[in-house]
Request: fold
Amino acid sequence: MRKIASILALVLPCLQAASAIDQTVRFGAPAAHFTESCPLGNGRIGAMVFGGVNEERIVLNESGMWSGSPQDADRPGAAAALPEIRRLLLEGRNADAERLVNDHFTCTGRGSGFGNGARVPYGCYQVLGNLRLKFIHAGNDTTVRQYRRELDLSGAVARVSYMRSGVRYMREAFVSAPDQAFVFKIEAKKRGALSVDINLDRPEHFQTEAVRSDGLIMTGQLDNGINGKGVRFAARLKVSVKGGSMKAEGGTILVRNADQAVLYVTAATDIRSFAGRNIADPAKTASDEADAAAGKSYSLVRKNHISDYQGYFNRVNLKLGEGPSDLSFKPTPARLIELAGGNADNALMALFFDFGRYLLISSSRPGGFPPNLQGIWAEEVQTPWNADWHLNINAQMNYWPAESCNLLDLHQPMFAFIESLVESGSGTAVKYYNAGGWVAHVFSNPWGFTSPGESASWGATMTCSAWLCQHLWDHYLYTGDREFLAGAYPVIKGSARFYADMLIEEKKHGWLVTAPSNSPENTFILPDGSRAHICLGPTMDMQLLRYLFGACVEASDILGLDADFRSELSEKRARLAPTRIGEDGRVMEWLEPYAENDPYHRHVSHLWGLYPGSEITPFTMPELAAAARKTLDARGDGGTGWCLAHKLTLWARLGDGNRALQLLRNQLKPAGERSVINTSGGGTYANLFDAHPPFQIDGNFGATAGVAEMLMQSAENEIRLLPALPDAWPGGEVRGLRARGGFEVDVKWAKGKMTKAVIRSIHGRGVRIFLGLKSVDLALSPGRAARLDGDLNLK
Reply:
């Protein structure tokens, strides 16, 4: 198969400098929990800095730390059950059909272990280990004064400082992409006052030993779910000191009476997967990289890190209000509490937007894995839901801000992941559906898992691969890159081929529908009062297939390929079941007007066509948009963290900035330290991590995308400025957002009205600019910009 080209974003040479406003997450005390610590990352290596005074714990991660191994989880003979399952569904016998799905149409073996797959072949993402430092402070005074801990988003650097016994201690940490290392500088502002014991550990399957007198190496092997011989890993620590002494004693480095110490931690695994580095000896690779990083001056490593990071972060700049807010210098957890109490804090909302961009830069880099349910940050061996890639919204939401927030090149790991599923998904398509093309169901891992899940109630969603393909087509819409499209087209075509093959005709209207399927994780009530999940053609499926078939038709036309297939798709697309409005005025979630078992269910899948799709808009389909509004009103403004973020984007697409802002405020509600899974109590942790709960990163990315949608929306040939500006944001400025069609957009507003906008064309094409009911048509040459005033007049 032709590989999808790795695309570097076309960024005009007009990147603005970092904003004058404060972009710092602040704390007044060390972290007591993982979700109070400061996340750092370079896409592959992650670190969580707790900032303890007597003992510092830094949780270390590496994106290849996956237990499990490749497996064939497709159930033998599954396709033989398909005709009977479909017959029962066509007869309205959903409960009987669901029993057959559970018996014959789920994965074989233990699947994901029902979300606990650490010791089965499916596997899970795991912590690399802990870097632990035990400080020996000079003097007898144990009082800690002037404690500060912060995460500077403008430079991706974490800092800790405090006074003890008259000595100021300072720490600075970052994870460098150029040098592929976690770097940690510790210094005492009094000569000889730094003494610390340093070691490496993890909960299981490891050994740590000294390397000379200046370092440690931790090695081990994860469980593959078969014989224990899974992914091998290594973490290498190298320490350099200024003043004092250093020696190794057992598995500990002892630093005594130094002025300064700089720690370099590198890591490697030998995972063999679509984004593996093909490493034969993790210990040697980690050691070589540690030597290389430590061979440079700290100032050079730091400078290169910040330069690399700011090349992404400085592409977009958001100000909400005029100048720095006095609240910006309060501890962030206190600001979250005050916001929940009713205080206004627009600067905190801008910080949350920036934090989402920061996390994407820190967890997604070309050539690596895409961020999983927790990005790259985890402290457990058995992570929640295996910290895998859930494909019925979560993995996709991780990349919602990639295009609009000018991080297009960071989308590449998702593209590679999608392509990695084609081979195994082709087998799944045949074995379950007797269909061509390829399919992926609810979740996946680095080993290419594409089978249905263990239960019909949630594991039967089979349009996840169609949703994944939206990322490929949407990237083309933003970039106009024909080379990329040529590489992506076989994947899009394969997905469309599968659905074109597996659709069946329902009896009542003659529509083409999917079968069997479900509306993700939701339950409906049958006429006899029983509950079921399996159905024909849920609304989300139909919206996704209209999008996929339309994208494939347009792509094939652009590339001059597959005219016969194009005609087949166009014909079948016209016969797909439409999005309908029920008697209650809401968008119907299922093909039949089933009653909902949970009226406040966290998934709002039947509004996919509103966002992230483009089928429903207030401008082209006002009746459906009004029905979507009623649907959201009925669902309510509660939910998990990612659910709140999705509702935020949906209200933004409806042009209701005040309601979107309410969802953002709800998402910023302090979540406490709940670790038990809760499907309705979402919010935000003290370190700004999204709370499902527990921690799940998709809500961070979804909220950032939602704020961008409030300020600018785009389609292929149009851009809408300030489409959902809330009353509480009367003044502000955003620079560098990206729009479909190849445009970069700056907007400034005051007193609730736009004062100016700049539209830059990257490729040169026409576009219609909307500001409320006003519009203007622009035709820009490549690299040229149009400057508009508040009435859309050219300046």
